[in-house]
TrEMBL record:
GO terms for molecular function: ATP binding; biotin carboxylase activity; metal ion binding. InterPro entries: ATP-grasp, BC-like_N, Biotin_carboxylase_complex, Biotin_carboxylation_dom, Biotin_COase_C, CPAse_ATP-bd, PreATP-grasp_dom_sf, Rudment_hybrid_motif. Residues 1-444 form the Biotin carboxylation domain. SUPFAM superfamilies: Glutathione synthetase ATP-binding domain-like, PreATP-grasp domain, Rudiment single hybrid motif. Residues 120-318 form the ATP-grasp domain. This is biotin carboxylase. SMART domains: Biotin_carb_C. The keyword Cell inner membrane does not apply. Its EC number is 6.3.4.14. Keywords: ATP-binding, Biotin, Ligase, Nucleotide-binding. It is an enzyme of class 6 (ligase).
Length: 448
């Protein structure tokens, strides 16, 4: 096992990784931008290095500055967290070329899964179900209209690069398709540097369910259960739970087996997630993409399995066996993403946090990136903290969640805490019979 690790990220995920590193006796080294000097993860690390200005391009996306920090601190490994450079095959290769341990999957696996069209084709070859759609990038709106007629409306328009729901749009006719195509291509070119677009059949009333996998050092791939991520606003996840209340035991078995095949097909190592779209009516599922990193929602898998995923990432990267023997889930867990944003329109907010009071109690876990007296800026994702609860079953977990959300008190920038409390009172969510359109219907009652 290496003795030190540089965490190439910020906020709650940086603090999360630092926590496990120190618990394992590893030296935890943080990097931070000029805007983040006062955040908790900087103080929690054994050593911290300023790497640049607030703008991500000059700091957390600056590979040269991060590698220089690793050299200056004699770091032996680099953990990228999620976002920023976590799914950059080029950065993974640079880390390895410097003689450092990359705490993540092989660069080739990142590259092969980073393009949604390539990933889609590879998964089809591996026997993983994929939705009807295209097998090559769609060059223009006219061709998109032709392909949509072949696939059948409604269709989903999505950039082949990137993630986070950016550029995604559903089209129900040619007019909306052409508009969505041009908007998706413009967004993809601006944010990801390329405008390749793909089309897939849109599944009505679908659930978004993902499977956590681990590719072990000996080449084995194991599945650690699924997470339901169907509570979304603008295709961005807000609440996740495990296990999914919309997946039957038979469907779960098929999904976990397919996720293992997906990992095996790319020689996967470390923690990864196979995301799927589930058609509850037909009890079918389709591959969406593979996230070649640790997911934001990984804590709920940890709560139901008792497995520290960051510890396993470290062990796998060091070529060691994992430290667990069983993967059977216990109870039910839910994660709520607490964000600095307007609870009605979901527009991000900024400002100093003047009050920060966290809930405490059995079955409650908080992964926080901020604290009282810190400032939320415009430069980064508005995620403030992840409130996670675990219970003996779903009703027990939701009861704990209700009490925890009522006790979570933040003043300063606006937060989505009122929305999260409202969600718990929504009959669809309370029953578990919801889909990816839930938030849209909450904010626009006339929405289909």
């Amino acid at each position: 096992m290496f003795e030190s690790v540089l965490v190439a990220n910020r906020g709650e995920i940086a603090g999360r990784i630092v926590h496990t590193a120190r618990a394992m006796g590893l030296k935890a080294i943080a990097v931070y931008s000029a805007a983040d000097e006062g955040l908790p993860f900087v103080a929690e690390a054994d050593e911290a290095v300023l790497i640049g200005p607030a703008e991500p391009s000059g700091s957390y996306l600056n590979a040269a500055a991060i590698l220089e920090a690793a050299h200056r601190t004699n770091a032996q490994a680099v953990h990228p967290g999620h976002g920023f450079l976590a799914e950059s095959a080029a950065f993974a290769r640079q880390v390895a070329e410097r003689g450092l341990v990359w705490v993540g999957p092989p660069a080739l696996a990142i590259a092969r899964m980073g393009d949604k069209i390539n990933a889609r084709n590879l998964m089809k070859e591996a026997g993983v179900p994929v939705a009807p759609g295209v097998w090559e990038p769609v060059p223009d709106a006219a061709t998109a209209a032709e392909e949509a007629e072949r696939i059948g409306y409604p269709v989903m328009v999505k950039p082949a690069a990137g993630g986070g729901g950016i550029g995604l749009a559903a089209a129900r006719d040619e007019t909306s398709l052409r508009k969505a195509f041009e908007e998706a291509r413009a967004a993809s070119e601006r944010l990801f540097g390329r405008g390749d677009i793909l089309l897939e059949r849109y599944v009505e009333r679908a659930r978004h369910v993902e499977v956590q996998i681990l590719g072990l050092a000996d080449g084995t791939v194991v599945a650690l259960g699924e997470r339901d991520c169907s509570v979304q606003r603008r295709y961005g996840k807000v609440v996740e739970e495990s296990p999914s209340p919309g997946v039957t035991p038979a469907l779960r078995e098929r999904m976990l087996a397919a996720a293992v095949r997906a990992g095996e097909a790319v020689g996967y190592r470390g923690a990864g997630t196979v995301e799927c779209l589930v058609d509850p009516a037909a009890q079918e599922f389709y591959f969406l993409e593979m996230d070649t990193r640790l997911q934001i929602e990984h804590p709920i898998t940890e709560l139901v399995t008792g497995i520290d995923l960051v510890e396993q990432q470290f062990r796998i990267a060091a070529g060691e066996p994992v430290s667990f023997t069983g993967t059977a889930p216990r109870g039910h867990a839910v994660e709520f993403r607490v964000c600095a944003e307007d609870p009605h329109r979901f527009l991000p907010g900024t400002g100093e946090i003047t009050v920060w009071e966290e809930p405490v109690g059995e079955g409650i876990r908080i992964d926080a990136g901020y604290a009282e007296g810190t400032t939320v800026t415009r430069h980064y994702d508005p995620l403030l903290a992840k409130l996670c609860v675990h219970g003996d079953d779903r009703p027990h977990a939701l009861a704990r969640a209700r009490a925890a959300l009522e006790a979570f008190h933040i003043e300063g920038p606006p937060t989505n805490l009122p929305f999260l409390r409202e969600l718990l009172d929504r009959p669809e969510f309370a029953s578990g019979d919801y889909d990816t359109g839930l938030v849209t219907r909450m904010r626009s009652p006339q929405a289909p």
